[in-house]
Amino acid sequence: MKRIVSILEGVGSVVQLLVKSVSYAPTLPRQWARFVEQCYLIGYTTMPIVSILSFFIGTVLALEAGYSMEGFGAKEYIGSLVGLSMARELGPMMTSVLLAGRVGSAITAELASMTVYQEVDALTVMNIPAARMLVLPRLAAILVMMPVLTVIANIVGWFGGAVVARYVSFVGISSESYFAALRHYTKFKDVIYGMEKAEVFGFVVVLVCCNIGLSTRGGPREIGAAVTRGVVVSLILILVLDYFVTKVLM
Amino acid sequence: MNEPATSACSKTRNPFTGVEANAVGVRVDAISKKYDGVTVLKNVTFDVQPGEIFVMMGPSGSGKSVLLRQISGLEYPTSGTVTVDGMDPCLEETRYRVRIGLVFQAGALFNSLSVYDNLALYPREHRSGGEASIREKVMHALRILSLEDAARKFPSELSGGMKKRVSIARSLVMEPQLMLYDEPTSELDPVMSATISEIIATLKNEYSVTSLVVTHDRALALTIANRVGILMAGRLVTLGTADDLRSSTDPRIVDFLNPKIDIEHPRFKKLEAQEKDTS
Lengths: 250, 279
Prior knowledge:
Chain A is mainly alpha-helical. Chain A has helices spanning 2-23, 32-44, 47-70, 78-116, 119-125, 130-167, 175-185, 188-214, 221-249. Chain B has a single domain, classed as P-loop containing nucleotide triphosphate hydrolases (Rossmann fold, 3-Layer(aba) Sandwich), CATH 3.40.50.
């Protein structure tokens, strides 16, 4: 019972934080510098690792597809399988998982340490709401950067698949046929569909991690516990939301 | 003591513009505070008159910092009320009308910002003037606290005393009507403690800022206070001027003001024995 109450309290405080942050949306233009800084931290610094991960997801997809499809002579369709899988599911999902681990943990650690060392209290006394200065720019940045990261993940993943399709001997199809199948079966709406999913996941990860950071109580030891909680809750939410968002968008 | 603490008589003077404004008073009315069933403050009542320096003393763990959190509006008391200039300090509206500066025990400086940006944050966020006037304000506050050379440094590069002074300067830039100090001289050497005491007295004497200081530093309290309260185990045990306290015969106050070290205590005997063994 206590556990359920604490989950409901958590949901309530996340909703409260969201409402508060959105109510400060008109202040965003004068927080331009903070917004750009967050775009850099969330987007630019995550780009290399998203690219590496996506490249290898693309290669594994192509390998597995090549191995399975060889049996019934459908190797020419590897491009469509990699294209659709990356655009609709693996691109947004893996980008969000990576975001939870890299950006979510960093946000939780930063805000938890600001809370524990009374910097957030200092902001409150100075009448500078944490929701305005610390949460809003991060939420705005993730809304802008998440689609960009997802598109990069898709493109790099597709190229990873193309490399395997072309150079691994038992797959061995030309880049032209790989991309022809990819282009034919992967539509623009599939890419948009994946971006929408990623947008939801990214927004939830940042919001939840901000909330966990700002509600940290106690000493420095709690910062580590908050980071673990932030990442675990984010990963669970991504997987649970994936089902519901997929169902809604279908 | 039961007179309402309002801004009727005293005036604060803005340290930057010289413009006068009403000084504010604080009223703490029968507040209690509980955390997880443990009562930290028990029915505490007192007021701080506009323009005075009120010092709340007490041993560690007596609830002084918790009291300050209630007055600064960071928390609501479990029961009782706190008003600053007649208003609830927890409300955002009150913070717009009454500027409260709080000097945290550990400084609570923003580690990612330089000293200059720490001070400039408040005026920038509240859009009080252009960058030129903000710069003037910040440099003036740094000059008052003799910190001009530290403007470009980051909090991690500062000593404990400097952090405290930066924290005071940051509050000063807010042009506060009420200053709250949480253990302003803890962890400082005697010279730095004296400097901080002087700064608190200067803010009161030159700018008539109402000040509430919580500390266990007896020397600081008895030097700068207009009135002193002593908090023990969450209860306010006495309230009066520094002279009232010095002449008190209440054994709790006498013991607190003149702590004696009992060298016959088993703890000291044990240490003595250990020392002998080592030698």
